Amino acid sequence: GEILDIVSQSKLVERCRIEFVRRSATLKLPDGVLVELAIDKGTIFAGEKRAPLYELELELLFGDPDALLPLTEQFKQKYRLEKDILSKYEKALRLIRSR
Description:
The chain has 99 residues and is of the alpha+beta class. It is 29% helix and 39% strand. It contains three helices and three strands. The chain has helices at residues 2-8, 68-79, 88-97, and strands at 17-28, 34-46, 49-62. A hairpin with a 5-residue loop joins strand 1 (17-28) and strand 2.
């Protein structure tokens, strides 16, 4: 309805684009906790600018949320990962604003 009315009167312009491939697997921990492990690899595009995208995400599917912290720490230490709280879209916005 209303959004389509607004959008149909304007020309949409691509400001950014995110292309990536996701590989995922479900991990079953010894205590019955189920975690989805997703690895995203791709590129963020903003005009002529490009930035690589590499993300590892852990999502609790079933069980105690406290089980995620030790697993997260294990991945961080073993693979020298850094915690990143920005979404892919937020990363694209930063790329747009960068010089």
